[in-house]
DNA sequence: AATGAAATTCATCACGTGTTGAAAAAGTTT
DNA sequence: AAACTTTTTCAACACGTGATGAATTTCATT
């Protein structure tokens, strides 16, 4: 392992702290202490605390958006000129995320936990999510519209909203389902979630935005 | 309108502030200022800041839990000895919440926004939600098991988890769907959500935990 | 080895934090 | 009216906050 730069040490520490305590629950000194770095370096490298937060959000968002974009393009191309099957679109939307959460280590889990908080927070939920993820989301919505041509636009948007809520609560991994299920289900077992999330969400979409069209029906 | 007690003024102000900025984003002085009250009164009446937070959470949780309990009992009794239909159970779970959010005024909307945050927060999501809502949730899970007798236990729990996520993102009302839909959908139009949430979630449950049994199938 | 830029340390600023205790005021009971 | 309790006010506490500027060290380039 090549040794980390100070900037990366700060980013990593900030990510972990923000994920656990939220933006306002963490001080610049907390971050510096957690990164084993002088407090002034936080401001030297990033300007201010909020800029650290934005940098944390941006870093992995770029990676994820590329992966998800490619997954969607792959699915669309494979079925072209027919619309892609619903479950493949939903899978392309979720797979990169849940796969990283499962196998990416604590750093990725921290990032997703942070995402889960952000999405449900008035100060950030509207702006940050929009800023980092809306362009990609619009592409997925286009794919969904092609597959569900009879879908009412508002229905489609609310279905996406439900998907977003189910997904981000999963990311938050608060441990609630662990206690609620007496340990049967584990918040951090994202593979188990993925197996169930895709069919659950697809069924929801179909019930409201169906019928689904595609190559299967036309053969 | 009878004039508010100091304690209620503090609770109301705290609720609004916590909903907007989270626990750590609000100081005891912020609350006092927003309540037009001397800062020392916050500690005089509640002991410390965290106790204010807990009091805010508890106040409306009791009201809601009673309403939802009654709604569930009513549905179960009406269909006894048959299991209640899935959609009626889900409606009993969500109706009191979304109805209050729609018609209860800003104070209730603040409370739900706070709930939406809490549920996705590691520090509170596990403990506070469990503390205030688990007994009721277990009753709903029992009703679901009766209606979906073939359901795998883990499947059922994850389906509930998806419901919880979709619901609490709705409560958070971050305005994201407003911008994502170019104003077609409004975060605060909880009636529109309710219309769609119940069938969406029911379809999800059925696809994974079905088949549903009940009086209709047996006639 | 000398030079200049980048990175790091340290002390410090003005202000906000949660909380407390003593004094004053308001309200209640005898 | 007197005695008592509850509530409110005000000042203060020790400490943490985000951020800055000057001095120092580290480093790469000549």
Note the main attributes of this structure:
mainly alpha, 219 residues, homodimer, DNA-binding
Write up what this structure looks like.
The structure is a homodimer of 219-residue chains. Chain A is mostly helical and 219 residues long. Chain A has a single domain (58-212), classed as Tetracycline Repressor, domain 2. Chain A has helices at residues 6-21, 28-35, 39-46, 49-79, 86-103, 106-119, 122-125, 127-147, 153-172, 176-180, 190-209, 215-218. In chain A, α1 packs across α2, α1 (6-21) crosses α6 and α5 (86-103) packs antiparallel against α11 (190-209). The longest helix of chain A has 31 residues, at 49-79. Chain A is elongated and about 60 Å long. Chain A starts with 5 loop residues before the first helix and ends with a helix. Chains A and B meet through α1, α6, α7, α8 and α9 of A and α1, α6, α7, α8 and α9 of B. Chain A binds a DNA duplex (30 and 30 nucleotides) through residues 6, 27-29, 37-45, 48-49.
CATH architecture of chain A: Orthogonal Bundle
| Ends distance of chain A | 53 Å
Query: Quick one: CATH class of chain A?
Result: Mainly Alpha
| Number of DSSP-assigned strands of chain A | 0
Total domains of chain A, how many? 1
Task: Spell out the CATH superfamily of chain A.
Answer: Tetracycline Repressor, domain 2
Biggest interface found: A-B, 66 and 66 residues
Report the order of strands and helices of chain A: HHHHHHHHHHHH
> Structural class of the helices, strands and pairings of chain A?
mainly alpha
The helix content of chain A is over 70%
Oligomer: homodimer
Form type of chain A: elongated
Q: What is the name of the CATH topology of chain A?
A: Tetracycline Repressor, domain 2
The largest pleated sheet of chain A is described as: none
Which whole number gives the mean pLDDT of chain A? 95
